[in-house]
Design goal:
The chain has 7 helices and 4 strands. With about 190 residues, the chain is an alpha/beta fold.
Length: about 190
């Protein structure tokens, strides 16, 4: 287990890094984001490090804005999207197809959940830092997934994830507008 930070093109990863494929997942997320975002937005995201932790009590990932970190449970992040979706469907959190249909080519790859989570958490970062009515930018009824249908900030992050992974055609007009308005925000004012 390495505690040494890895330095990919866009994110600094802080250990423990449990598997070298983690770097592939981080780079896949960075490439997907770079294809949809401006250089200024990517620079903003670079300010956030990725920190892994191990816990049986706290699941998933979240953004720690105070410390500028995307914090991920390493056990969850190591799962393939298929494993993650199977677990979350069983828990009643998402519906079948909510995640694996976005990335069918990598759904069985280790760490593919991490790629998806990093894009989702990046959506939270851009949502909060773009100003305006952040964290209530999208009515949950317009979420593309069951997970996002409870909270406005989750609805936005889920819509953002769909947009980044090339599924904008599966978004409602309201969700697409919320994401595009945020992406086209004047980031030079931050």
């Amino acid at each position: 287990m390495s505690e040494e930070p890895l330095k990919p093109s866009s994110f600094e990863v802080l250990g423990p890094v449990l598997d070298p494929e983690c770097q592939l997942a981080v780079n896949a997320a960075a490439e997907a984001l770079a294809a949809k975002l401006t250089p200024a937005q990517m620079e903003l995201l670079k300010q956030f490090r990725i920190r892994f932790f191990k816990s049986d009590e706290k699941r998933g990932s979240h953004v720690d804005f105070e410390n500028k970190e995307i914090v991920c449970n390493s056990d969850d992040a190591m799962m393939s999207l298929q494993q993650s979706e199977d677990y979350l469907v069983e828990q009643g959190i998402i519906e079948s197809g909510d995640t694996i249909n976005l990335l069918p080519d990598i759904k069985d790859q280790p760490w593919s959940t991490l790629t998806s989570e990093l894009v989702h958490e990046s959506g939270h970062i851009l949502d909060k830092l773009s100003g305006g009515d952040s964290y209530s930018r999208l009515d949950p009824k317009f979420s593309p997934t069951k997970y996002g249908s409870e909270e406005p900030h989750e609805a936005f992050a889920e819509a953002f994830r769909f947009y980044v992974f090339g599924a904008a055609d599966r978004l409602s007009p309201e969700a697409l507008k919320a994401v595009e308005d945020t992406i086209h925000h004047n980031w030079g004012e931050l």
